[in-house]
Amino acid sequence: MKVLKESEYTYLQAKYKRNRKWCIIFSAASIPAFILGAYLAQLIVLFVGLILLGVGVTYLSRSLSYRAGIQGEKAVVEALQELDDSYYLINDIMVGEKRGNIDHVLLSPKGIFVIETKNYTGDVRCEGDRWSKKGERRLYEIRSVSRQATNNANYLSGLIRRELNLRIPIRPICVFTNPRVELKLRKPTLPVLRLPELAKFVRAAPPLPTLTDSEIQAVSECMLGKPYKEGVAASE
Asked: Does this model's pTM top 0.85?
């Protein structure tokens, strides 16, 4: 496999740093509140300290989630290395300034794959396009992983159609990289894979349609050379 664009993890790194910064700010602010509350024996001040600390913990959890996302994307690149040189990988395509990124686009004679990567742990469930995760006390809905991947595929398909006048079906895939995730799938709207299944799935996929070398080159130049001004999907 040839990598046409290495990932700098721009989107995830920015989110990680931002949440880490606010974690430090709120956690640090809770310390004087605790000290002052204990010194004055004021429960209200101690309560404020607890609130500040809780907000800091929330930002910490988010920052760790974005860092895990970086690790997951790296794992996908490593897993795809076993593909031959008829496959071309473009990583981390930005979608606007604030709308996120497309994790991976894989070009091949068999077609184009858009890969949405998640490094979740725990109990993750899917019913159609509805996704949920089991917490300690309840099951709560999360952003639809399959819709993210499908929206990214639709966006790229539209870009290629506008810029190159090519109508190329793009296949979205969801890949879960963490071995500690427990997937419970019911009628998913697209392929949902674990990391060890990814390369085998791509190799076994039927051509849809077959792409020529010149078309692959044109598509890759389109994605690498054109700024993404608008988009409908982003990774979280």
From this structure: no
